[in-house]
Amino acid sequence: MSRVIHPNPSSPRADWREACAYSHGRTSFAFLDEGAKREIRRRMLKAVAIPGYQVPFGSREMPIARGWGTGGLQLTLSLIGPEDVLKVIDQGADDSVNAVSIRRFVTRVTGVRTTTDTPAATLIQTRHRIPEEPLRPHQILVFQVPIPEPLRLVEPSEVETRRMHSEADYSRMWLYLYEDIVTYGEITIGARYPVLVNRRHLMDPSPIPRWDVARLNGNPALMLFCAGREKRIYALPPHTRVEPLEFEDFRFQVESFDDRRCLHCGSTQSFLDEIIEEETGRRLYACSDSAFCEKVRKAGDGSTPPSRKEERLP
Amino acid sequence: MNTGLQPMVQVRGLTRFFGRGCADCFGLTGPTHETNQCPRCRTVIACREVSFDLHADEVLGIVGESGSGKSTVVRLLHFDIEPTSGEFRLHLNGTAGDSVPGLDPQQNLFDLGPHQKRQVRNSLMGIVYQNALLGLRLKVTAGGNIAERLLMAGWRRVGLMRARAVDLLGRTEVPVGRMDELPRNFSGGMQQRVQIAKALSTYPALLLLDEVTTGLDVSVQARVLDLIRSLQRELHVATIVVSHDLGVIRLLTTRTLVMRHGGIVEQGLSDQILEDPQHPYTQLLVSSTL
């Protein structure tokens, strides 16, 4: 590691280009060294073998800060091949800063093609959303996860949460939901709604809205989750049973938009973001999935958005 | 109910060391040596070869000075701590055995895995600790505390759980209007009654009471004892009462074990032990309190 890769300290930008060019010829495809990729792939295989179980792994130092998608990035870099087509979204948008920087970084170290079109992508890295358009078999969705432990809400000790997972003792989480109902009359968890995977492991679906939680069940795509800071990988193989925790008399409910439409495409079939107009204080609603919104607009008047029908388990 | 003379609970050779233990531990401790700490390896024998039976619908008292191992016995039976050795069997004869599928009466419960132990504990046992902090979650409402045990037993209807909590809190004389308050706002006596309601929520076959009235003032003590006695008569639950207070033992129990230095020094009918103690230590205990 004693090689000098910053020959000109006066211009950091030129340095960075030079360092990349330098490393590009000499280090592995996709930034990570082969040993790291092999370890991460093995951990992913284990995660797929035990759906919902959090597999520890040696999270590497990445050129972005921990907490900004290092987990998802490491999975993407370990999975990606030259023929892959990559899509990166941040809260549904292809053009937000986090998505753009990650996409640019991956392209720079691999040279793969990128897209914003969900069906055209083979590999999708996402922060806190699932694309509105139905996923296909053989697509891989990589989630960036801030807190992988669903029980952290009720139990601070890692030793104790591991025991709870090993014995499938999730009564504390149920109790949390009960208390929520007693105090507020409903379950108030918005994002990070705990789900039971394969009737065994309680899993944090990352902070996706409940709208997307309902779409995890039986999804034909492979879903991989990784928390870089917390050093955990977990997975939902295609067609896995994923059930949100719910009481018989207090069912799980997805967000309701009460017939509100996207102000751009007019869709009523998608998850909407609330935008407050500064001058007037008006509340406006727009699709959170920007690529989907674009597509609907191009397709016409918005009355026939692409089907949201997905394969579900009976 | 059980048939014949088959005891419901069978405990044999229950032993717990705190420390490494050595070959001479048993020889150098116990009532004859007036200590429960091995002078050679400094191991504390908190509980030595304790054996007893408990029949359905019976109330057994365990009495002794502090440090005699009585609370250790209860905690071992509740799987709070692991025994060094010993056997623990439950014969339910269909009374509540259905709730733990595949539980063999000949099975030593200490050999079960942690998951099964938790199942047995949740569905067949209830415990009330001296300190409500141990038995209750103070950041969870009184109703939630009762619901926790029901949730562990697989209940998934909020309405039913609340109905059961209202019923139990009513029986234990906790104002039902306060069931959605945190127990930390309750008085000591009320916390204790919430604990009792929680322990009884799944109608357990075995109830363990560990110094329930210690630390409560006399009038509250009397009401808690009254409550336990009436609930015991109503629900016919086999109960083990641990206390250093002979008054509690006299009021609640039919049979009593006297423990000292981790071992049982005398056992028999409660009246007999209190009126005609045989062992010098029991004589001292009875004469000093009465």
Short description:
The complex is a heterodimer of chains A (314) and B (290). Chain A has 314 residues and is of the alpha/beta class.
Describe this structure in words.
- The complex is a heterodimer of chains A (314) and B (290).
- With 314 residues, chain A is of the alpha/beta class.
- Helix content of chain A is 29%, strand content 16%.
- In chain A, the strands form 3 sheets. Chain A has a 7-stranded mixed beta sheet with strand order 1-9-8-5-4-2-3. A 3-stranded antiparallel beta sheet of chain A has the order 7-6-10, with no helix packed on it.
- In chain A, β6 (195-197) and β7 (201-203) form a beta hairpin.
- In chain A, α2 packs across α3 (70-79).
- Chain A is globular, with a radius of gyration of 21 Å.
- The N and C termini of chain A lie far apart (55 Å).
- Mean pLDDT of chain A is 88; it is low at 1-12 and 307-314.
- Chain B is an alpha/beta fold.
- In chain B, 37% of the residues lie in helices and 21% in strands.
- Chain B has helices spanning 25-28, 70-77, 114-124, 132-135, 142-152, 158-171, 188-200, 218-235, 246-252, 270-275, 280-289; strands at residues 9-18, 44-54, 59-63, 85-90, 125-128, 206-210, 238-243, 255-260, 263-269.
- In chain B, the strands form 2 sheets. Chain B has a 6-stranded mixed beta sheet with strand order 5-6-7-3-8-9, with helices on both faces.
- The longest helix of chain B is centred in the C-terminal third of the chain and has 18 residues, at 218-235.
- The radius of gyration of chain B is 19 Å and the shape is globular.
- Chain A binds chain B through residues 163, 166-169, 171-172, 174-175, 178-179, 181-183, 247-250, and chain B through 114-115, 118, 137, 140-141, 143-144, 147-148, 151-152, 156-159, 161-162, 180.
